[in-house]
Amino acid sequence: MHILVSNDDGVNAPGIRVLAQAMASLAKVTVVAPDRDRSAASHSLTLENPLRMVPLDNGFLSINGTPTDCVHLALTGWLAELPEMVVSGINAGANLGDDVLYSGTVAAAIEGRFLGFPTLAVSLVGNHNKLENYATAGECARRIVEHLLVNPLAKETIFNVNVPDLPLSEVKGIQVTRLGARHRAEQMVRSHDPRGRPIYWLGPAGAGQDIGPGTDFYAVNHGYVSVTPLKTDLTDHHALDGMQHWFSQFRLVPV
To answer: Which site from 1, 131, 146, 198 is most exposed, i.e. has the minimal number of CB atoms within 10 Å?
Structure first.
């Protein structure tokens, strides 16, 4: 068994060390991750600059690119022995609801799925600067992967796992959830550089809006691990029939 591990917080982030150690109890592990924090890189690829792979003393491989670059390079250009699974994380902070559209952690898992591998994205939910229980997230990831090895699901399913920042003994269990949603993000924060020129910082993410029972927000807020199955098909299937009728009356060129 061979597992590829990546993330978006960077190759030196504490979460990826814990995750690699947790996966090592199940399989051979290869870690390929960005050389720095690439949070919110989403599914971006580096197109105009070459990628360089630098081996670190701990055996991890550092890439001067995005999380998607890391997984793509490992699976299509570098690994002689391909893995059976891609696991991304442990992200420092939530990837709940709308977050999955921005998340480099989730994007790394999606890239693994695009290339035909079962994938898992793992995040630790709490105060970004005071996270304490990476070990809990690592153990939860280990148990989920162990269960997947015995009871595999369809390869097109991407598991988005969010773990509350609690000791394992205080986690109430696992809930299978749907994505919730946040309120719109807060306003950009305007400031000035040392020369007095205006600069802008991205405002905080919006608070939870759709956070009721059944959502990933609700599960984590109530002490459960949230596991949300994702897929890459963004088609609004419910809208197809209505749009077909709407376009049946549409003329691109006036008669």
So the answer is: 198
Distance CA(159)–CA(109), nearest Å, equals 8
pLDDT (0 to 100) of residue 183: 63
Q: Which of 15-24, 65-74, 207-216 has the lowest mean pLDDT?
A: 207-216
CA angle, corner 163, sides to 161 and 169, nearest 5? 135
- The dihedrals phi and psi of 186, each to the nearest 5 degrees, come to -75, 165
**205 φ/ψ angles, rounded to the nearest 5 degrees:** -65, 155
Report d(CA 246, CA 254) in Å as an integer.
16
Inter-residue contact 125 to 220 (CB < 8 Å)? yes
Sheet (strand 53-55) strand order: 53-55, 61-63, 28-34, 2-6, 85-92, 119-125, 158-164, 224-230, 173-176
pLDDT in tens, 228-245: 999 988 898 999 989 888
List the domains of the chain with CATH numbers. 2-182+208-248 (3.40.1210.10)
Give the Cα separation of 26 and 142 in Å (integer): 8
247: region left, alpha or beta (phi > 0 left; psi from -120 to 50 alpha): alpha
3-state secondary structure of 195: coil
CA nearest 171: which of 96, 131, 226, 91?
Answer: 226
Q: What is the Cα–Cα distance from 60 to 62, expressed in whole angstroms?
A: 7
What are the Cα distances from residue 12, in Å, to 67, 112, 241? 14, 21, 49
Q: Tens digits of per-residue pLDDT, 148-200? A: 988 887 778 899 999 999 999 999 999 999 999 876 766 777 888 898 888 87
